[in-house]
Amino acid sequence: MLAKAWLTERRTGEAIFSLGDALWGCLSGLVSITGGCAYVESWAAIIIGFVSGLLYLAGSNLMIRWGVDDAVDAIPIHLISGIWGGIAVGLFSFPKYIEMSHPGATSAGAFYSDGKLLACQLIGILFVIGWVSVLMFPFFCILHYVGWLRADSLEEIVGLDISYHGGMHGTDLTSTGSSTEENTAKYYERREQQRLKQRNKIRRR
């Protein structure tokens, strides 16, 4: 939160203290400490969490700059902080804690011994990235081809609570009267027309 306030003040001249960014920063810290929670000392956990918060801010801004549609910041929170957490295991793992859980282990964090554990962590990270990419890229290509990869613009405006979950969002729950029902009916009619057009387009292909 403080880092975001400082960045905002530098850009706009006015500091904004964002609770949302503070919560996302906390979540990023939780993601990054998961891999090494049993192997790092308290001071190292603080550093790992602090760095993950900064990485979240950098990653979130990068997604916006690249035009990546990530409304809940899943990529900077889980991907970037997860990668950092894997690297942190290879840097900060304390030899005593490694020995307690893995008797006979000779390697620890790079700050305490050789870099073998760090190398293993990097190989593991690259393997996971390659494995997920090979499995999921064709899957997402298929979703994109059939038109299921993302919601259409109308559904985004009206809200996915209605279109995907069959319910109303918070503001509609407090609304009564025929106007709400009429708008919902019009929405479903337009949505069904769009689906028919999409199906016809796929059949023509």
Description:
With about 200 residues, the chain is mostly helical. The chain has two domains: about 130 residues, no CATH class; about 55 residues, no CATH class. It has ten helices and no strands. Helix 2 packs across helix 3. The longest helix is centred in the middle third of the chain and has 31 residues. The radius of gyration is 23 Å and the shape is extended. About 5% of the residues have low confidence.
List the helices and strands and how they pair.
Layout (H helix, E strand, L loop, with lengths): L1 H11 L6 H16 L7 H25 L7 H19 L2 H7 L14 H31 L6 H6 L1 H6 L4 H4 L4 H27 L1
Q: Distance between the terminal alpha carbons, to the nearest Å?
A: 49 Å
Give the percentage of residues in beta strands: under 5%
- Uncertain segments are 170-178
Tell how many strands the DSSP assignment holds.
Answer: 0
List the secondary-structure elements in sequence, H or E: HHHHHHHHHH
Structural domains: how many:
2
Approximate shape: extended
| Main sheet record | none
Mean pLDDT: 85
